Amino acid sequence: MNGIALAHLLRLSSPALPVGGFSYSQGLEWAVEANDVRDEQSCGDWIGALLATTMTRLELPLLVRLHRAWSATDLAPACEWNNQFRASRETAELRAETLQMGSALRLALAASGEFDTAQAARLDAIDSITFPAAFAFAAEAWEISPEDCALGYAWSWSEGQVTAAMKLVPLGQGAGQRILARLTPEMAQAVETAMVLEDDDLSNFAPLYAIASSRHETQYTRLFRS
After folding, report:
1. Fewer CB within 10 Å, N or C, the chain?
2. How far apart, in whole angstroms, are the C-alpha atoms of residue 207 and residue 200?
């Protein structure tokens, strides 16, 4: 990857990206409330399990497909994969999260002034855009490869989960860094698997994840929006 593409990938993966990702825990808050996540080990196990299931087998493969779809002249594949990801969100909170973050990223990209009229029109043409669709659009436009795009996305998601856990469990910064160190080779493996999955192999089967998210909707006290 050239230096400019790398800098763009770092922008997309940064917690400073103005999309509101810091306000979501994706059910982790309920897992802490239920005592399923209570310390460094259980936190790493929870995040690692999600990385190996929904992230590896659905979110990252769809991100890769969206990246490739944006390079096509026809917008139909991008619309189809965007709709597929939106439909895969099993709870109201998860659906609201990806739509809010997708819309926020679209606005941020438009405000940056980096895209010409034709590119902006393509991005605006996607109704109810999800976060992976907007992320993939920027990555493709900035000549970031699908593999690097997926790795940056996996890192951003993992870091967000660890940051949420540090506030919720709570965990110290050292514990957070140890969890990320543990997850780093798993991220690389997740991307490697996601790059070769066939359409028929895609799956978001993670029942406890869906339960955690749905339970979070009625949790008595909350720090996070999901």
Report:
1. N
2. 20
